[in-house]
Design a protein that fits this description.
mainly alpha; globular
Length: 354
C-alpha cells in the first residue's frame, strides 16, 4: 500500500501542472480580461473629461483602448503582469505556487491565500454538516429499504427519492427561499449570510442558535438534493450482500435477523458506502457548495471563485482552482486507502497497471 500511495502522490504533481496549464491557456485567450476592463474604465473616465472632438486611437490589440496613450496602456499591462510573454507568466506562477504563494487579487487588494483562509470556514461548515446529515439519513433509510424491499414503505420512499434525485439542489434552495425566507409566503429564516449582524453581542447559546438558524435552509437544500443517490447505493449494496450464501448459512444457524444484518452483512455492505465518502465530499464541496453559496449569498470559496470568474481576477481563479484540484486528488487517494483499510483483501500494490 505504501508504494501505491507514493506513486499516487507523485502523480499529483504532473496532474496539477497540466490542469493549471490547460486552464491558463483557455483563460488567457478569453476576451474581457482585467487589462481590457481597466482600459475601458480609464477610457470612460477620460471620456467624461473631454469637451468635444474625436480622441486618438492607439495602435493596440485592445478594443477598449481608444483615447489612451501607448504609455498608459503599457502601465496598465505592467500593473497586471501582462507586460511579459504568456509562457513567462505561467512559469512565474508555477514557481510561486511551489511555495503556496498564489499572488494578490487584482480587485480585492488582498493576498489570495488570505482570501482563501477567510472564506474557508463557510465552505467547511456547509460541506461537513451537509455530509454528516446526508450519511445519517441515507444509511438507515437505505438499510430499511433493503430489508423491506418491495413493500409499501419501499415504494413510497422510492418516489420521494426519485424527486430528490431528479431536481438539483439549487432548485430546492430557490423554493425554500420563496416559501420560508421572505419570498411570497413566510419569513421564518434569514435570506442571506452565515450569522446575524449582532452575532458578536450574543451569548454562547445565542451564537449557536443564530448560526444554525442561518444554516437551516442551505443545509436543507443540500441534504434534499444529495441524499437520494447515497440511499440507493446503501440499499442495493445491502440487498446484494443479503442474497449471498454466508447470510443464508447464518440464518440457518438460528441467528437473529439483527445479528445477521449488523454482525455479518454490515461490514461488507458498507465497504463501498464508507470508501465513497471522499468522493462524496468532492461533489459536495466543489459542486453543491458553489450554487448554494451564490443563492444564499454565503461568503465562501464557491462565491469567491464565481466572483473571480466574472471579474477575470486571475490570481483568485487559479488559486481556488489549485486548491480545489489538490484537495480533490488527495480525497480520491484517501478513498482508495479506505477501501483497503475496510477490506484488507484489496491490494493496490499487487495491481500491475499502477
Amino acid at each position: 500500500m505504501g508504494t501505491y500511495i507514493l506513486k499516487r502522490l507523485l502523480l499529483i504533481i504532473p496532474t496539477l501542472f497540466f490542469i493549471l496549464l490547460l486552464n491558463f491557456v483557455v483563460i488567457q485567450i478569453a476576451p474581457g480580461g482585467p487589462v481590457e476592463q481597466a482600459i475601458q474604465q480609464a477610457q470612460s473616465f477620460a471620456g467624461m473629461g473631454q469637451t468635444g472632438g474625436e480622441t486618438a486611437v492607439t495602435n493596440t490589440a485592445y478594443q477598449g483602448a481608444k483615447g489612451l496613450s501607448d504609455e498608459m496602456v503599457a502601465k496598465i499591462e505592467a500593473q497586471y503582469g501582462f507586460d511579459r510573454p504568456m509562457h513567462e507568466r505561467f512559469l512565474l506562477m508555477i514557481k510561486s505556487y511551489l511555495s503556496f504563494d498564489f499572488g494578490t487579487s487584482f480587485f480585492k487588494d488582498k493576498p489570495v491565500t488570505t482570501l482563501l483562509w477567510e472564506k474557508m470556514p463557510v465552505s467547511l461548515s456547509l460541506g461537513l454538516w451537509s455530509t454528516l446529515l446526508i450519511y445519517c439519513i441515507s444509511i438507515p433509510l437505505g438499510i430499511k429499504k433493503a430489508r423491506q424491499h418491495g413493500s409499501v414503505f419501499d415504494q413510497s420512499t422510492s418516489m420521494l427519492l426519485a424527486i430528490g434525485y431528479a431536481i438539483p439542489a439549487f432548485v430546492f434552495a430557490i423554493l425554500l427561499i420563496v416559501f420560508f425566507a421572505g419570498g411570497s409566503y413566510l419569513q421564518w429564516f434569514p435570506l442571506q449570510g452565515l450569522v446575524s449582524e449582532n452575532f458578536s453581542e450574543l451569548s454562547l447559546l445565542g451564537k449557536i442558535k443564530d448560526y444554525f438558524w442561518h444554516m437551516s435552509l442551505p443545509l436543507l437544500a443540500m441534504v434534499i438534493g444529495g441524499f437520494a443517490g447515497l440511499t440507493y447505493l446503501t440499499k442495493y449494496s445491502f440487498m446484494e450482500e443479503l442474497s449471498k450464501q454466508y447470510v443464508l448459512a447464518a440464518r440457518a444457524k438460528g441467528l437473529s435477523e439483527s445479528r445477521v444484518l449488523y454482525g455479518h452483512v454490515f461490514r461488507n455492505a458498507m465497504l463501498i458506502v464508507i470508501a465513497g465518502l471522499p468522493e462524496a465530499l468532492v461533489g459536495i464541496f466543489f459542486v453543491g457548495n458553489l450554487f448554494i453559496e451564490i443563492i444564499f449569498n454565503l461568503d465562501g470559496l464557491g462565491l469567491l471563485g464565481f466572483e473571480a470568474i466574472v471579474q477575470r481576477d486571475y490570481p483568485v481563479i487559479f488559486g481556488t482552482l489549485f486548491l480545489f484540484t489538490l484537495l480533490g486528488l488527495l480525497l480520491r487517494l484517501l478513498s482508495d486507502v479506505l477501501y483497503q483499510v475496510i477490506d484488507p483483501r484489496i491490494n493496490f500494490d499487487a495491481r500491475g497497471d499502477q
